[in-house]
Write a structure and sequence with these properties.
Elements lengths: L11 E3 L8 H5 L7 H6 L3 E5 L5 H7 L8 E6 L3 H6 L5 H7 L4 H14 L9 E7 L15 E8 L2 E8 L4 H27 L2
Parallel strand pairs: 1-6, 2-3, 2-4
Antiparallel strand pairs: 4-5, 5-6
């Protein structure tokens, strides 16, 4: 998922047919194997907008999910992104809900929202974008524009996707991308722990 030579904490852009490592991610329709995520035992929290709970459903549908999944927030409405997840109001007013900074803040916010006595969730993943059939009414952002937010002790990053397909296909590809980002962040955290 990370482009050759890029820092994994830097925002990334991935599109269909772009010829980079991320091409398979943008075209993915089958979710990745989450066994390594579950084996690592790090707590996970999910914030969703355009996927409307599909990422959570995919995780919950996998045996072993209760070992890591703290919970999640479906913040489809822009106001909920601010009120529940703590996304900056000025950012939302200026950029709208489909923006890499919004994705990062959603991922950071859901870690906090899903905190327990043991602390914040170790990994926060978020989805925001435009599944269609029309461009975003607030900003005019094109159909297929998607951002996956990732937050952990390593910091925050966003993965930009430019997806093709109808509404259902864009949402399914987004779920796969979010789960791939979760698996990738688990690997990064494991590498950090062993270095």
């Amino acid at each position: 998922m990370t482009a050759h030579g890029s820092d994994p904490l830097q925002d990334q852009a991935v599109g269909p047919g772009d010829g980079r490592d991320g091409r398979a991610l943008a075209d993915a329709v089958l979710p990745p194997d989450l066994s390594a995520v579950f084996a690592a035992g790090r707590s996970v929290a999910i914030a969703e907008s355009l996927t409307g709970g599909l990422v959570l459903a995919e995780i919950v549908g996998t045996p072993g999910a209760s070992a890591v999944l703290r919970g999640g927030v479906v913040a489809y409405d822009t106001e909920l992104k601010r009120r529940v997840l703590g996304v900056d109001a000025a950012l939302l007013a200026e950029r709208g809900p489909v923006d890499p900074r919004v994705a990062r803040e959603m991922a950071r916010g859901v870690r906090r929202v899903c905190a327990t006595e043991g602390g914040e969730a170790a990994i926060g993943i978020s989805t925001t974008g435009v599944a269609g059939p029309s461009a975003d009414p607030q900003t005019g952002t094109a159909v297929g524009t998607v951002f996956i937010g990732v937050s952990s002790a390593r910091g925050e990053r966003a993965i930009a996707l430019n997806l093709d397909g109808d509404r259902a296909e864009i949402r399914a590809k987004t779920v796969c991308a979010a789960l791939s980002a979760l698996a990738e962040e688990t690997v990064f955290l494991d590498q950090d722990a062993h270095s």
